[in-house]
Design goal:
137 residues; alpha+beta; six-stranded antiparallel sheet; 24% helix; globular
Length: 137
Amino acid sequence: MASGRTGHAGEARQGLVPARRSADVDYRLARQNTLNAWRSGNLSRELVCDAQPMLRRNAVACGTPSTETCPICEDFEVAYVTYVFGPRLPAHGRCISTPGELGRLDARPHNLSAYVVEVCAACGWNHLVRITALGRG
């Protein structure tokens, strides 16, 4: 199986995806419904593989690699991209690129939300995986 990642072999980006917490909102069922609709022909590939160019670039540059194959193209592995939203952050959120950055944001006294998105940089498949609360607010 080919890898959609570039970079050094064995390059690990662990820590870019927040640890699971009891207040997480998980989107596995919505993901499965989307995939079922695509497989049955009710959704076109263009609708499920609609990742914006920046999201695809972030999957390669900042994403946490996974061992999961893309459910659409079945040729590349998906990556998890984490964006954090909240007070004193850009309106478009902040894409997490280092484990330390995630830790610093989690230590802030504000309520923040981390959105983890599954992305295939090759075909453009993307789906929200979960939302996790960050911060000490």
